[in-house]
Specification:
By secondary structure, the protein is of the alpha/beta class. Helices cover 34% and strands 22% of the residues. The chain contains 27 helices and 39 strands. The strands form 6 sheets. The chain has an 8-stranded mixed beta sheet with strand order 1-2-3-4-5-6-8-7, sandwiched between helices. The chain has a 7-stranded mixed beta sheet with strand order 11-12-10-9-13-14-15, with helices on both faces. A hairpin with a 3-residue loop joins strand 34 and strand 35. Helix 12 runs parallel beside helix 13 (470-479), helix 16 (545-557) runs parallel beside helix 17 and helix 22 (737-747) crosses helix 23. It starts with 15 loop residues before the first strand and ends in a 17-residue tail after the last strand. 48% of the residues are buried.
């Protein structure tokens, strides 16, 4: 490792794994003196043309002086980074700090020349773009603000790398050379480019795992019954369209049940895209090496014995990830249940599920194998989609998710044409900030339904520390458009509705059916879900299919309804013929008005379920479903799909065995549809002319110079908040009755006397606050009562404050969480927020529309709008306060916590009566840095 004469130690934090454009991985790290041989070998594999573009002249080999120069860096003014695969260089980048005269310089010079060289075999993989992001981050860390590069006009690939990076650029042409200069400060466009490249690369890396042309199962036993043999049989029986190989070092022959068999992956003559590893954990490292050397693109590691087994297993898991990434491979697992792709061009069931699910358009992700089994089973039991509509497109069980996580799979599903609805069961969220960003983008295109476990993360999962409670994280996911449900049953119920029906235009629900009591149950369920049900239409038990058809047609044509719930009970003695007729009646009515969702609530109508399944189907008929599963064949009620319905599918009417389940799914669809409409007009972050951003920055810098973290005093808090137009009512200390009287005369009567000791602060219910003291006599009497009841002034820390106009007491908080980012919270003061948890949250920066919704999203919001005849308060002033606090935290990440309590919102204006601010160096934001995979 490089030491003297280096001016800095080796910067290990610059090391990173990245996903390239083609889905493979590479490791980026600083170049050191130990890399001389690697550099020479790398250069020998670069074409003469690429060398010419790099050095502007024929340059067949590096001299000893060149090698010394390119491997000796001080990691400040001269830095070199290499991208490696299998420990060997595939590309390099370096910068040299220069002065205004273009000559080598040191700080404070803030410009550097940058140059790349990429091996020809790896050009087009996005290596240079990834290196530019990382060398740019290194340069910013070392005080460099601008890069300059000289490129030959014919070197279009490198010019494109710089042009497409999204930075602010200047371009000139002198002496036959194109000179590019660009600032390194991230811009909205550069971040957008970075996120787009991240999405393409990570989606491609998952696509390579889910759509392999060849699969090797390693650990296949000759006898049936083992894990490896089970997966091998499942792949073969599912009709995998690619090449399948069986691998076991104990194999004596060359075939296993007609499939080529080998002792090692190395012995396979052709390429292997995916290896499914089912060998004991102690043998996995050898398997990874063999796969890496053979050029395998990805691994699904079924083997257990990793982080879920304790500290030793956790270290074994880290080594597994490092080992695989060194060869450019990504991993699903370890301890994974497997993956499934039902696309007819793939037909892959590389999982422990004995049956491949029916093909459809639901993407399914589960971290736990047991939960994965339960989800697949329930989808299969509920019908799964013989028409290919409500079955599964792809399924991923990530196990310990040591490498590939839900974020990666979400990147893939975002633009996967085979997936219309995403269902995820998350036991943990490793990177909430990134997941929220990806979820918001995905939810704008297709529904994302999530069950998030509220318990501790499983032992095998690496999870970032967060100080936010589970309820807060859930609220932030809801802000991002995620449909949050609590159980697997709700996950399937909601997913099937969204896969089968268009989104409702609003909360108005028509209810019709042949049971008055079932209609009333549905009506009550709608009220509980916040929907607006119309009076149920009772068709009576004598209703015929024609009556259902007429009633449903009228309801769908009614402009005052946005969705229809049909309730049905069995008709005595009609049998399957009556069920088929009813199904056809509903189908034909729904076909005429395809823009509104229709749901059926039935009571154990196996016959109707089968009839709904068979009505007007154009798909191949499957075997008759078991009568014990009334939902198994609901999926063939085919109606021409409207534009709003899921893509490439027929519209299907889902049926539910209970009104509560149907209405709960409909309620989630209504909320999601409203989010989609709101997301189309996201609002804006207002500009306030009276904000002094520069003055606040100077004040913060001066305060932080005192130490690494501090809670500001009263005067400093008021000054900083004042820079952003937030005025705090003065509170003067009152250590004695005389000082209290003097403070009251200064402020003017009437005043309030408050105890600020921690156990009494903001606790008017305990008697620590006396209000509306009109004169000195009342003030002294209140002072005596407080000290008599609660202790000495030293214990009480009393203060005097001028009375504010009466109103509703609220609390505004902002905090920077290391995992989720900056969060703004709002609630009413007192028991409502503390005891009931009635607090709403939004990610910062908050837009004007989000501030409006934040105020209205707490359960006690009616108190702000004139509840029971009280005067409505000035919510416009409250929303402006929320926006100003959001701006303060967003502009200055050193402000890691703000609390305004109480904020009294009156009919006209508001008063901030208490405030605290904490400053600290901000936590690192990896979403603003270069693309990296989680470190191991």
């Amino acid at each position: 490792m490089q030491t003297s004469p280096d001016r800095h130690e080796y910067p290990a934090h610059w090391e990173a794994d990245v996903v390239l454009r083609d889905g493979g991985t590479a490791r980026i790290r600083p170049i050191t003196v130990d890399d001389a041989e690697r550099l020479v070998s790398f250069y020998e594999q670069v074409s003469d043309e690429s060398k010419y573009y790099r050095f502007f002249a024929p340059y067949p080999r590096l001299s000893a002086k060149d090698v010394h120069r390119f491997t000796h860096h001080d990691f400040v003014d001269r830095v070199g980074l290499a991208a490696t695969v299998g420990g060997e260089f595939i590309a390099t980048v370096r910068y040299d700090r220069i002065g205004t005269d273009g000559m080598p310089a040191s700080a404070p010079a803030d410009e550097a020349e940058v140059a790349f060289l990429v091996q020809d075999a790896h050009q087009g993989r996005g290596v240079a773009s990834a290196l530019l992001e990382h060398i740019g981050a290194v340069a910013r860390e070392r005080g460099i603000r601008r890069f300059a590069a000289e490129v030959l006009p014919a070197n279009n690939k490198m010019i494109k790398v710089f042009r497409d990076a999204g930075y602010t650029q200047k371009r000139s042409f002198e002496d036959g050379v194109v000179r590019l200069e660009f600032d390194l400060e991230p811009t909205d466009r550069s971040l957008a480019v970075q996120y787009a490249r991240e999405q393409r690369a990570e989606a491609r890396s998952v696509q390579r795992l889910l759509t392999p042309g060849s699969v090797a199962v390693i650990g296949v036993g000759r006898a049936r019954g083992g894990v490896g043999r089970g997966i091998f049989d499942n792949i073969r029986d599912a009709g995998f369209t690619g090449r399948l190989y069986a691998v076991n070092q104990a194999f004596p022959g060359k075939e296993l049940d007609g499939v080529p068999a080998y002792r090692s992956v190395r012995d396979i003559e052709g390429p292997v895209d995916l290896a499914v590893v089912a060998v004991p954990a102690e043998h996995v490292p050898q398997v990874v090496t063999e796969c890496g050397e053979h050029g395998v693109q990805g691994l699904v590691v079924i083997s257990a014995g990793y982080a879920e087994s304790g500290p030793e297993g956790r270290e074994r898991q880290r080594e597994l990830v490092r080992h695989a990434r060194a060869y450019g491979m990504r991993i699903i697992g370890p301890n994974a249940f497997g993956i499934i792709n039902t696309n007819p061009d793939v037909q892959l069931n590389a999982s422990l599920a004995n049956e491949k699910p029916r093909p459809g358009h639901i993407g399914l992700f589960a971290q736990s194998g047991a939960i994965g089994i339960a989800l697949l089973s329930r989808l299969h039991r509920r019908g799964g989609g013989v028409t290919g509509t409500t079955g599964v497109s792809t399924f991923v069980s990530s196990g310990n998710r040591a490498d590939v996580s839900g974020n990666d799979v979400l990147q893939y599903w975002y633009d996967d044409p085979d997936t219309d609805v995403v269902l995820m069961y998350l036991e943990s969220i490793g990177n909430p900030r990134k997941f929220t960003r990806l979820a918001r983008r995905t939810a704008a295109a297709k529904p994302l339904v999530v069950v998030q476990s509220a318990g501790a993360a499983p032992q095998g999962h690496a999870v970032r520390a967060t100080r936010l409670p589970h309820s807060t994280v859930s609220a932030l996911l809801g802000q991002a458009g995620v449909i949050r449900v609590d159980t697997i049953t709700e996950l399937v119920d909601t997913g099937l509705l969204l896969a089968r029906q268009p989104l409702p235009g609003g909360p108005r629900v028509a209810i019709l059916g042949n049971s008055e009591s079932l209609g009333l149950l549905t009506y009550d369920a709608c009220l509980s879900e916040g929907l607006r049900p119309l009076t149920p239409l009772d068709l009576t038990t004598a209703a015929s299919p024609a009556d259902f058809h007429t009633a449903l047609s009228r309801a769908l044509a009614d402009d005052t309804c946005d969705a229809v719930v049909v309730t049905a009970i069995p008709a005595v003695g009609e049998g399957s013929a009556g069920d088929a007729a009813l199904a056809e009646a509903l189908r034909s009515a729904a076909e005429r008005v395809p823009g509104k969702p229709v749901l059926v609530v039935h009571v154990e109508l196996g016959g109707l379920a089968e009839a709904l399944s068979a009505a007007a189907s154009t798909a191949p008929q499957a075997a008759t479903p078991s009568a014990s599963h009334p939902f198994r064949a609901l999926d063939r009620l085919a109606v021409k799909a409207p534009e709003e319905a899921p893509r490439n599918c027929s519209r299907l009417i889902p049926a539910y065995p209970a009104a509560e389940r149907a209405v709960r799914a409909l309620g989630e669809a209504v909320k999601y549809a409203q989010w989609r409409r709101d997301a189309a007009e996201p609002g804006k972050v207002p500009e306030h002319e009276d904000i002094d951003e520069k003055g606040a920055a100077e004040l913060i810098d001066g305060l932080l110079a005192r130490g690494q973290g501090l809670t500001l005093g009263t005067d400093e808090t008021c000054e900083l908040l004042g820079k952003y137009g937030v005025q705090v009512h003065r509170a003067l200390p009152a250590p004695t009755p005389d000082e209290a009287a003097r403070a009251a005369r200064t402020l003017g009567y009437p005043v309030a006397l408050k105890a600020t000791a921690p156990h009494l602060r903001h606790r008017a219910d305990l008697g620590g606050v006396r209000l509306d003291l009109a004169d000195e006599e009342q003030l002294r009497r209140a002072y005596a009562e407080l000290t008599e009841l609660f202790g000495t002034p030293e214990e009480l820390r009393p203060v005097v404050q001028r009375m504010a106009p009466r109103g509703v007491d609220t609390v505004v908080r902002a905090v920077i969480d290391p995992a989720a980012g900056a969060v703004l919270s709002f609630g009413l003061a007192g028991a409502a927020s503390q005891l009931l948890g009635d607090v709403a949250h939004r990610l910062i920066p908050v837009t004007d529309r989000e501030a409006t919704s934040l105020v209205r999203s707490i359960r006690t919001a009616p108190l702000l709008f004139g509840w029971r005849g009280s005067a409505p308060v000035d919510t416009a002033a409250l929303e402006e306060l929320l926006l100003r606090v959001s701006r303060l935290v967003d502009d200055h990440p050193e402000v890691v916590a703000v609390t305004l309590e109480p904020v009294v919102v009156a009919p006209h204006g508001l008063s901030v009566l208490g405030a605290s601010v904490r400053l600290a160096p901000p936590p690192a934001r990896d979403d603003l840095g270069p693309r990296t995979l989680p470190a191991y």
